[in-house]
Amino acid sequence: MNAFMRLIFTSDFFYSIFRVTTPLLFASMGAVLSDIAGVPNIALEGMMLIAAFAGMYFSYVFGSAFLGLLCAILFAVAAAGVMAFFTLYYKTNIILGGIAINSLASGGTVFFLYLAAHDKGTSVSLPSKVLPNINIPIIGDIPIIGPVISGHNVLTYVAVIAVIFTWYLLKKTPLGYHLRAVGEKKEAADSVGISVIKTQTIALLLSGLMCGFGGAFMSMGYVSWFSRDMVSGRGWIALAAEAMGMQHPLGTAATSLLFGVADALSNAVATLGWPSDLVKTIPYCATLAGLAIFSVRAYKKSKNV
Q1: Which of 106, 133, 140, 179 is the most buried (most CB within 10 A)?
Q2: Sign of the torsion formed by the C-alpha atoms of 134, 138, 139 and 140
Q3: What is the mean pLDDT of residues 70-88?
């Protein structure tokens, strides 16, 4: 127990919380933007995986991390565009469309990895470029706080900006009002001249944009390579965070941070010799516990109404 407490109450542990929360923040903001417009995006996992592969491959090909990031975003947005095309314009069931994107990403990335490098699991021969870390002046020199806040990958700070951007977009802009109106009652929105399909398409594309950043972080920030299914359920955890945050960007960000704590905890206790199979279940057990609490609260609220 003493070793556990010494491991937890360190600046390295709190630093790791922000690091592992980064992809969750991006994906959960993507979930908020799509769900609030009435088009729940369960393809977050697949879009992040596509972005992770594209970021790794194109950063290697072009020799530039920022070009790799751009390609990761473009491919994730393209996947969102494909989903929007079939589900909104051709009325395919959006859940089935999301499952199709996830399945395509899981198998397709391995297929293209083999074509590009003859690697079947990990891009050993195609190391990706890494996006830079940012040392914040003055703050980085503050004892205890500095090592926790400063020195993160640039996308960690972009993730914080993404939360603020999502909140501002939904609460302060005409597009945000349109997204909320369409999600609450699309017939009423259509009656006042708001294009439902156009608005929902924008929501899915913005969701893909967020997934592009999250996926790029996985292969060019979290690590510097691509491996099969490396997103490891983060897209599904982001959906849980969005549900518990009740479609509010700040509430969703707070819930994502809690899941990030669970993920960081699993990484930390792995160094203590705990069984690896048990350690790997910690983030998912936290997700199930969080969803159970959310369900109980929602049930009590419905009974009071």
Answers
A1: 179
A2: positive
A3: 96
Cα dist from 180 to 20, 72, 255, whole Å: 30, 28, 21
- CB neighbour list of residue 156: distance below 8 Å, 6 or more residues apart: 18, 19, 22, 217, 221
User: For residue 94, what are the CA distances in angstroms to 35, 98, 106, 174, 289?
Assistant: 12, 6, 18, 25, 27
Q: How far apart are CA 187 and CA 282, in angstroms?
A: 43
Task: Give the model's pLDDT for residue 122.
Answer: 84
27-61 pLDDT, tens per residue?
999 999 999 999 999 999 999 999 999 999 999 99
Q: Tell me if 187 sits within 8 A of 176, measured CB to CB.
A: no
CATH 1.10.3470.10 fits 10-295, yes or no: yes
Locate tokens 């989903």: which residue? 83
Q: Is the dihedral of CA 90, 96, 101, 105 positive or negative?
A: negative
Give the angle 23-28-33 at the CA atoms, nearest 5°.
130
Own/partner contacts of 156-160, CB < 8 Å, gap of 24 or more, are 156/18, 156/19, 156/22, 156/217, 156/221, 158/213, 159/21, 159/22, 159/25, 159/26, 159/213, 159/214, 159/217, 160/25
Q: Would you kindly state where each structural domain of the chain is located, as residue ranges? A: 10-295
Contact at 8 Å (CB) between 210 and 30? yes
**What amino acid is encoded at 227 in this protein?**
S
Helical H runs in the chain?
2-8, 11-35, 44-62, 65-84, 94-117, 145-149, 154-172, 174-184, 186-191, 196-217, 234-244, 249-269, 276-280, 282-304
